[in-house]
Design a protein that fits this description.
By secondary structure, the chain is α+β, with helices and mostly antiparallel strands. It has one domain: Aspartate Aminotransferase, domain 1 (Alpha-Beta Complex), CATH 3.90.1150. Helix content is 17%, strand content 23%. The protein is built from three helices and six strands, in the order αββββαββα. The protein is globular, with a radius of gyration of 18 Å.
Length: 128
């Protein structure tokens, strides 16, 4: 028996990216993540605030330029390096569509961390 997938109210945003052959969708902590060319390009969340809306993975150095272009963007209250548009924002749909049109901007996206983090080697003293 296959578990039933829960509906996701922001699925239409991912539909805007589906023509890209490099698109990979993944679940991420109850959200939906979109990767393009291996980079994490956007995350869609439909949970309780602040986990709702569109999260835009980027670095802090790009915040000013992105916020100038899309005024509704703000730093995410938990993931401060990323920008966020809450779904309750006026024109959320318009902003989401505009971001999808420019998703390949070098200002958008982050390289994912590789697999599991390696643990530091412990240095132990050899007792003679």
């Amino acid at each position: 028996m296959t578990p039933e997938k829960r509906s996701f109210r922001h699925a239409w945003i991912l539909d805007l990216l589906r023509g890209d052959p490099t698109l990979v969708e993944r679940s991420m902590f109850g959200c939906r993540a979109a990767y393009l060319d291996g980079k994490l390009a956007l995350v869609l969340a439909d949970g309780e605030k602040p986990w709702n809306g569109l999260l835009l993975p980027t670095s802090r150095e790009h915040h000013a330029q992105l916020r100038e272009k899309w005024r509704a963007l703000r730093p995410h209250p938990v993931l401060g390096k990323w920008l966020w548009i809450p779904e309750a924002s006026p024109s959320f749909e318009d902003y989401a569509a505009a971001i999808c049109r420019e998703i390949r901007s070098p200002l958008i996206g982050v390289e994912p961390r590789g697999g599991t983090r390696s643990r530091k080697k412990r240095h132990t003293k050899k007792i003679i």
